[in-house]
Design goal:
The structure holds 2 protein chains of 2 kinds. Chain A is an alpha/beta fold. Chain A has 8 helices and 7 strands; from the N terminus they run E-H-H-E-H-E-H-E-H-E-E-E-H-H-H. In chain A, helix 4 links the parallel strand 3 and strand 4. The longest helix of chain A is centred in the last third of the chain and has 14 residues. The chains are: A alpha/beta, B alpha/beta.
Chain lengths: 201, 468
Amino acid sequence: MDKFTTLTGIAAPMPLVNIDTDMIIPKQFLKTIKRSGLGKNLFDEMRYNQDGSEIADFVLNQPAYRNAEIIVAGDNFGCGSSREHAPWALLDFGIRCVISTSFADIFFNNCFKNGILPIVLPQETVDILMQDARKGANARLTVDLEGQTVTTSDGQSFGFEIDPFRKHCLLNGLDDIGLSLEKVAAIDRFEASAAQSRPWV
Amino acid sequence: MSGPKTLYDKIWDAHLVDEAADGTCLLYIDRHLVHEVTSPQAFEGLRMTGRKVRAPEKTIAVPDHNVPTTPGREKHIDNEESRIQVEALDKNARDFGINYYPVSDIRQGIVHIVGPEQGWTLPGMTVVCGDSHTATHGAFGALAHGIGTSEVEHVLATQTLIQKKSKNMKVEITGKLRPGVTAKDITMAVIGATGTAGGTGYVIEYCGEAIRDLSMEGRMTVCNMAIEGGARAGLIAPDEKTFDYVKGRPHAPKGAQWEAAMTWWKTLYTDEGAHFDKVVTLKGEDIAPLVTWGTSPEDVLPITDVVPAPEQFEGGKVEAVRRALDYMDLKPGQKLEDIQIDTVFIGSCTNGRIEDLRAAAAILKGKKIKDGMRAMVVPGSGLVRAQAEEEGLAQIFIDAGFEWRLAGCSMCLAMNPDQLAPGERCAATSNRNFEGRQGRGGRTHLMSPAMAAAAAVTGHLTDVRKMI
């Protein structure tokens, strides 16, 4: 997993609420047995016509946002299925950070496993960032994970909260299976004890 | 933690392996269910790092999302990508020595129907699967939720999951349900009341007389859609119905172990005075048969209502409703009962169990589906299918004009050939009405099996109470 430290990039405004995982990556692209290559199908049905041509007014098809690295989104982003293909597709497109008022639980978890930073901010702040994102390619947001701030193109800065363990993993690009396996003795002890107390499991 | 505990607190505490100073926990996982779509990358990760499956005996795999529901599928799957995914699961199950139900096995079906049916799911367990509808297993008083593929790999390698504890939410459904109102209407009513983000950050415990009165099948339907309400999981405290359902299942404990298990299971309830961070109460008698009109499961109304206008909503929802009505080709003020449909889908992990098929068949008995209607029943497992055939339900469906399919996820998410064409409109017993969910450009109205059966007969969304 790539480290996430600071990011200054173009932010695409997607104010629609309840952007679900079927919108982010429709199911026909879940048939892959790989993690890579999903970026071209990110937001597929919003982004392309049935004949494969681009829908010009979709935000990521607009020249200003084709290289977006951040999405500023409406409430409850990532609701729906557990498919990790959603963050894989975002990452493959080049998105490293999503900002919203709330995220669906499983999607939120999945982001951290892939070096994507999901940031939760209050509605008033998301509204300001959304306005900033609407300015286009010249208005770049800066996200500083260490300092836990998002700064607009005109220098307004907002703090955000993040779980300390997740912050540590993102800053250092850590694989958490490796971290958990360091606790294998505790897992062994738990299993031995559960074998006594709940032998039917 | 001392003092009164919720059911969630008790299950959590019983599975805590390690807690760091910042509250990050390692939680032990009792059952790991696996399907073909969200697992190949996880097994590949194990191979690349030389890791093994820590507890293959607690890991259960079944192909369901991709599989065709037509005969011959055990010999050949036409779609190459689907075939590769199913073959990958075959190989991974074999290589890593995990429990497996291939399509050729009568016990194959939707993972969330197979788990309870085979007795893998038991009260007080932690159950995970790379699938959001893992919430279904909460009906047994098991802490069950969906995980992503990286977490699938984590559970395969460590039999644990890194977690932070959620908050406790109580959803109480008081009193009795009226005739024609089902578990599906309860769960949709809750989502209508709380919204699709209303449960975010919570584990829901469903309780109250109307929940107690439900069968295990109905309870699974309620918990299944906890995820549509945004919750990490839904729970229902186990009781005699739970124990009766579990007893004698192939992987349920037997003899002295059964007695030991029962002793613990009977302690699995929320203590008097335990704290809930949020409480929602609905009256069972106020719930009507419901349908969705939009493209989010929160877009739900009684069948007697009309399509709402965007202006009736607030904030970002105004634009979302405008977009939904355009996508669904509906006009504000239009009666829901006047909405014509051309497809009916009965099945899914929400409503693909025997009780669901009985409810639909009760409406369809002696009737025919509307001319030109495409209607299919996809039983949730091979065993549900066999039972429905034995009970004569299959013949009722076939006589009415339904296609009688083999088990799988099918048109709930349309990864297999069962899909809507652009503009087709479906009465579906599944769980999501998202844009494109059942096929690009397809329009989905969610409802109970009885309501879907009624719509199949009349050709439009119909108040099932007129037919009972």
